[in-house]
Write a structure and sequence with these properties.
By secondary structure, this protein is an all-alpha fold. It is built from 10 helices and no strands.
């Protein structure tokens, strides 16, 4: 706390940025959750997975970012209440890592779900169909298990040393990012192979499978959308990993660590934007929600 004065300008900037992104994170994820409830055209499994990510991101905006803001304000004020400061720090680490892991596992599971949907769609004659493997109950069970695992990893990290806590976080992040990278490489390979097959087939052979091809195109669009989320996660999580690896205790790195954490939280308000922008059915649901809201307000004013 003694050296916090050297970081005051940096902390003030990040308090302002987090105060703004905290509001956008809450509002955008609430809108996304309501839109998912109003969207009937998306598969129930995909809706459940996106909903899990939206809930974890909403928790980051509701709880984690306010705790982080309070944590930085206490550093700026150089508070003498060490007990409150340490309590805030522990709560931030526990809740923040639980929700962060849950978000990471959710996005990774979505990528696995999209790969299975595309791969099994093309192999339906040789294997079980996606509907038989990726049932709604199994997806819900996977979501529940991912939240339990997230909480367990967070508790283990908080009860251990800071180095162990960082090691757990780095391992989870690296495994998830590498898994998603491999999955999207496999998806691109499957899509390219399918495109080549379609172009090499004669027109009379393609026509009977027109519905199958249109379904495949829809699956491909959802995979592209989730790939954008992967790129966003990569951009927002790599900086903090680099700072920790380079040595967060160095004075130069302490400034960068504060900004890297803010960038990390910023992803929670950008992810719902990606989903809303790329999924047409979610956009339409949001438009309907806003139209109903404005029409009800007009009726109240006229009444």
């Amino acid at each position: 706390m003694k050296e916090a004065g050297d970081f005051s300008p940096c902390l003030i900037i990040n308090v302002v940025v987090n105060s703004f992104s905290c509001y956008t994170t809450i509002m955008l994820n609430i809108v996304l959750i309501f839109a998912l409830r109003r969207t009937s055209s998306l598969p129930k499994t995909l809706k459940a997975l996106i909903l899990s990510v939206a809930v974890s991101d909403l928790g980051i905006g509701f709880v984690v970012q306010p705790l982080y803001i309070a944590h930085m304000i206490m550093q700026i004020q150089q508070t003498d209440d060490q007990e409150t400061y340490n309590g805030t720090d522990r709560a931030l680490r526990l809740i923040g890592r639980t929700l962060g892991y849950a978000s990471f596992f959710g996005v990774t599971t979505i990528s696995v779900d999209r790969f299975l949907a595309i791969h099994l769609h093309l192999k339906h004659q040789e294997l079980l169909t996606y509907q038989e493997i990726g049932t709604y109950k199994r997806v819900v069970a996977a979501v529940i298990l991912s939240w339990i695992l997230s909480g367990s990893l967070a508790v283990t990290g908080v009860l251990s040393s800071e180095n162990v806590c960082n090691l757990i976080g780095m391992t989870v992040g690296l495994v998830c990012l590498l898994t998603m990278g491999l999955i999207y490489f496999k998806i691109s390979t499957v899509v390219r192979r399918h495109t080549v097959q379609v172009h090499t087939q004669p027109a009379q052979a393609v026509a009977p499978n027109e519905e199958s091809h249109s379904n495949f195109e829809r699956l491909k669009k959802t995979a592209v959308c989730t790939f954008y989320v992967y790129l966003l996660f990569l951009a927002c999580h790599l900086p903090i990993a680099i700072v920790i690896l380079c040595g967060e205790q160095m004075n130069e790195m302490k400034h960068l660590l504060i900004y890297a954490r803010t960038l990390l939280f910023l992803s929670s308000s950008l992810v719902p934007l990606v989903y809303c922008w790329n999924f047409r059915h979610i956009r339409c649901a949001i438009k309907n929600i806003l139209r109903d809201k404005f029409s009800s307000q007009n009726q109240i004013q006229e009444g």
